[in-house]
Predict the 3D structure of the following.
Amino acid sequence: IVAVTWNVNGQKPTEDYTNLLTLDKKDEDLPAIYSIGLQEEFVARNGWEEALSSALIPRGYILLYSVRIQGIVLFLFAKSQYLMYIRRVATNYTRTGLGGYWGNKGGVSIRLEISGTKICIINCHLPAHSNQLEDRNRDFHIICNKQKYSFDNVSYGVFDHDYCLWLGDLNYRIHQSVARETVLEMIQNNELKSLLMRDQLVMSQTDGDAFVGFCEESINFPPTYKFDNGTDTYDSSEKQRIPSWTDRILWYVSPQQMRFCVDNFIEDGAPLRQLNYNSHPSYFNSDHKPVSCTFEIKGRDILTPPPVNFAIASEWYSREDGRFEYTVEKGLQTSSWDWIGIYKEGWNKISDYLNYVWGDPSLGNNNCRCTVTLPAIYVPKQPGNYQLCYYSSVEKCFLGISEIFEVLPIRNENTTESFEEIEEPDNVNMNRPNPAIQEEHFIENDKSIVDNTEFQEVD
């Protein structure tokens, strides 16, 4: 898993992100998952989702989920071959600004299970200013306590997962007892280890005030905040802010997972290895530098076959009915809100379906095959390659993906009837999901904020 955190300072993406995302590798060496947390990213106009997608999707990734409150957003990209092993995805968010009423500060999270291994990823933006240490520690505990996820009437908290990755603009500063001139001199002399002894996050962990039980790899890069925009120069404004490591990535492993790995991995029982921990000073379009790391984690390796399987019953032609069959594994928990989407080959995210049909909720009890006839009006008009994907509203993920199949060109050249002249069937559930369903499944927005309002941190 590659984790990235960056406070983008409300700026639009203008740079190449190959280095930041470590994409200068062969496809087989790329990670299974990217979790990218941004702060001060304003969705209405900044285009960060598009920029990240344009870098990752050509390398075989799907934007699986995203969640946001105001400028705090977390993107989860997964390699397409891992989609069938991802289960029970859920999102949550916690506002902590203005006593919990405002989402300019707070945290967002995505939890998921990969082959039976439970992972929680949190992106947060904690209170600013050197003298707000107690507020940062308090907000950490608020976010921890409020991030809850429920499956099968069982509630999961942050520490009920095998792993938790916590990233964000944590805003911890160098202790105010150290003068700015001293900090700059220590950075110049590469005395980072000594300077970190005065880091508020390190001190809070040592004192047991916050992030107890979390680990962080050794920091071997200079403070990532605050720079003059477009430069490598620390703040030269009148405020002369003290450089600090505000942007951090930490990790937690549960005691149960520790024991599991010790018992099952004889040669190397360590459940997690952090392969690197870097800042990226070559990026200039923010007053923060991005930070990234790569995690290698051990899981339970439960590679079960997909519980939903498709068969394309016959050739599909444009402007003709299409038929397919699918089976659902007996005992699978299904819902009347499960649906099967039609996707064009090369699709990028869950909401890229062209059309969809509701699943049959009774199949999980019977382990039988269902045949679906798709009216011609819903068969893709354009010839090409397509896929069928079964989405579970219970587990918030795909439980089955068909092989690529071809929709062939219209074979009756004498057909003059247009699609506008075909009467839509009354008995087929083939409209797009309403916005409430789409929002629940794909993205959560903070509706208390007007879309075209910008909020930037004043420090």
User: Anything to note?
Assistant: The helical segments are 48-56, 133-146, 180-188, 192-196, 200-207, 255-264, 363-366, 435-442. The first strand starts at residue 2 and ends at 7. Residues 123 and 167 are 5 Å apart (CA to CA).
